[in-house]
Amino acid sequence: MAGDPAAVNVPAPPTETTHGVLRSALVRWDTALLVVLAAVVVVAGVLVEGFASGRNFQFLLLDVVAIALIALPLTLIVITGEIDLSVASTLGLCSAVMGQLWVAGLPLELVVVLVVGLGAVLGAVNAVFVTKFALPSLAVTIGTLAAYRGLAFVVLGDQAVADFPFRWTDAASSTVADGAVPWAAVVTIVLAVVFGVVLHATPFGRSLYAMGNNAEAATFAGIRVARAKFWLFVASGAVSGLAGVYWTLRFASARADNAAGLELAVVAAVLLGGVSIFGGRGTLLGVLLGVLLLGAVRNALQLADVAADTLNIVTGGLLIASVVVPNVVAMSRTRLRRRPRHPA
Amino acid sequence: MSQLKRTLRLGLITATVLAVSACGGTTRGSEENTNPAGNQATGQADPDAPLTEGLDVAFLPKQVNNPYFTVADGGGKSAVEEFKGNYKEVGPSEAGASSQVSYINTLSQQQTDVIVTSANDPNAICGALNSARQAGAKVVTFDSDTKPECRDVFVNQVTGEGIAENQVELIAEQIGGEGEIAILSATPNATNQNAWIELMREQLKKPEYSKIEIVAVAYGNDEDQKSFQETQGLLRSYPDLKGIVSPTTVGVAAAARYLSGSEYKGKVALTGLGTPNQMREFVKDGTVEAFALWNPADLGYLAAYAGAALASGQITGAQGEKLEAGKLGEYTIGEDGVIVLGPPAVFDQANIDQFDF
């Protein structure tokens, strides 16, 4: 179980288990994403003027940081078979509260801590409904999606708080050594490593796959399913709060409608990254590649003057393809392998 | 038991972090919040410089596929064609505060000469606009401004004085210069509306308007239903009412709908600020004689010329500079780099079919 059997199993011996098939398919999905991403970058670099430059790379990274951040805990949540659709509303509410606390005269350092804490509390509310009352997370977080956004408007109305100190707002888009890599991206990568290690190299991470495949079996195996899910929702809320801080500072504007609709971009990236919406499958690397691929495609098409509506169609198409392709591949593979033994 | 301990420990850590960060932190007012490198109009203007040909001019509206901006950008397009530039329109499909930022970055990356934009949020796009300007683009805002330090000039559709003067003139004409009038406004605390109403009262002090009296100000809250009911209420409470002025698009349309189905149609005059598409049927059925609004096409047209003048070095955005804007004539830049389009356009039976917004 430990180590990385997937790497060994790539040639797929005929005695392989279903689990093994899936794992090797996964590795291939990551590889496929990497190849597609590289192709997009190369093609856009050649065909689209202005794409291949450090400055554009910086813009691209700044645009995907918030999505990447929120996608980290969401990946773990989706692997357990749950979902959190309230992430963008959590971001918006945290942004609105951040504005009000700043207006109230609190020091910004404290405001940031409080806002991330608020995110965790909002996540805990989701967690309580999902784990203590055993409600479906889809329903719960659609509810809080609306409720948190509504609360954000109660907190800040249609006003914007914009007088954050320049030193802070500038930091949100400043780069390492004035190069092309924003500090925000570095923070995201550090967090990604943390989430990646937790998911792929700890018993806790492996237990998430187990509960995604079969929650009941996981429970019987002694995994504390409810407790694990509880903390994942809390983490999702806290990271969304952090993304709210980033969003507010990057756009120098605390507003109740900040990042409205972003949950769709995040879910799209997670699914495109190869995480199964039914749980039990997916890697963090795949999700990061998914985020970058969506970001790169949007960036390149925008530079090529493709209209916003067409852009949305392309993003939607990519998402559908990401769900359809691996399923078709897995199905046909399973069928090919099983047909001789179990006809029909 | 261990759960309790852990919770306590977590609480302690949090409290420590809070306490540490609370002392000596950055609070509101303790630090300058404007970009120290914020650029102002620099360089020397050459009023005789010809408009450069082949300028890349990009219009970035609040959102694409919005009828108002389609008309405004269309005006920009005809201006750009006149000075032989390359026009394009880009923009987000929804008007979120930050949705314009990636488009500004893209335009900056494409080395666009002029960016003409209407800001969804006065602050959210500031950083992106300034970095585009540092990369050589000239930035014109129109319709909705950003903070002044983030753009070169702002083309304002109208001033409060312009609206007040126009609205009083229209209603005076329609009621024959005397009688009681009422105002149907938006919300009681709408800053714009209150300023305009105050300016209308000032206008009415002029001798030619001495026989006109404002008897009531009603508030329809910019809601269709409420504006409809308030109109009804005004007509009941003031049987001698000669006219209603509603300087809000929602209010004037609702009032027109009420009037057109009532006994007051054609007897009580109605004017205000409305869009031709909302008001067309009421102008055609005789409920409304004339109403006003700025012409968005002219707004876009002027903004495009302002951008070209900036990029050609004719103007720098400083107060007092003059620019020639094609068919609209000469404009002078006011305080804070603001150019005012001029008095609102009046729409009536004769010209309403030429407008679609």
From TrEMBL, chain A:
One of its GO terms (cellular component) is plasma membrane. It is found in: Cell membrane. The chain crosses the membrane at residues 32-52, 59-79, 110-130, 180-201, 230-247, 259-277, 284-301, 313-331. The keyword Cell membrane applies. Its main location: membrane. GO terms for molecular function: transmembrane transporter activity. Keywords: Cell inner membrane, Cell membrane, Membrane, Transmembrane, Transmembrane helix, Transport. InterPro entries: ABC_transp_permease. It is a multi-pass membrane protein. It comes from the Bacteria. The keyword Cell membrane applies. PANTHER family: ABC TRANSPORTER PERMEASE PROTEIN YPHD-RELATED-RELATED (PTHR32196), AUTOINDUCER 2 IMPORT SYSTEM PERMEASE PROTEIN LSRD (PTHR32196:SF71). This is Autoinducer 2 import system permease protein LsrD. It comes from Saccharothrix carnea.
From TrEMBL, chain B:
GO terms for molecular function: carbohydrate binding. Residues 1-22 form the signal peptide. GO terms for biological process: rhamnose transmembrane transport. Residues 32-43 have a biased composition (Polar residues). Residues 25-52 are annotated as: Disordered. Residues 57-314 form the Periplasmic binding protein domain. InterPro entries: Bact_Solute-Bind_Prot2, Peripla_BP_I, RhaS, SBP_2_dom. It comes from the Bacteria. It holds the Pfam family Peripla_BP_4. Keywords: Signal. It is found in: Cell envelope. CDD domains: PBP1_ABC_rhamnose. GO terms for cellular component: outer membrane-bounded periplasmic space. This is Monosaccharide ABC transporter substrate-binding protein (CUT2 family). It comes from Saccharothrix carnea.
